Amino acid sequence: EPDDEVVPEIAARVDVSLGYLQGWEVPEELQRLLFLHYAKMGNYAKAEDVLFHYMEDYPESFELPRQGVLFYEKLLRVEDELLAVGNFSKDEAVESLQIMKKRLLL
Predict the structure, then answer these.
(1) What's this model's pTM, rounded to 2 decimal places?
(2) Torsion region of 22: left, alpha or beta (phi above 0 gives left; psi -120 to 50 gives alpha)
(3) 36 near 29, Cβ under 8 Å?
């Protein structure tokens, strides 16, 4: 996980830059970094979107789905109010955790 400080200005620039990439295939490493970025920012719904797009784009790779298991397990310990701010819920975390474990045959 990146140990850099979350800077709102940089986060806004990332979102604008991603708008320019609409319709383009995002490289595997960039998707991984975006997942970590959104998770760190508390934007859990966007982190999940990146994770599921990654699995569609790279079905043979298991690195990010493994991180996804840890991500969802962590979300199960987050307060409901914070999950709501990140446009997420515990029910979604439980369901997505099951999907990740099934994908990884855990």
Answers:
(1) 0.82
(2) beta
(3) no
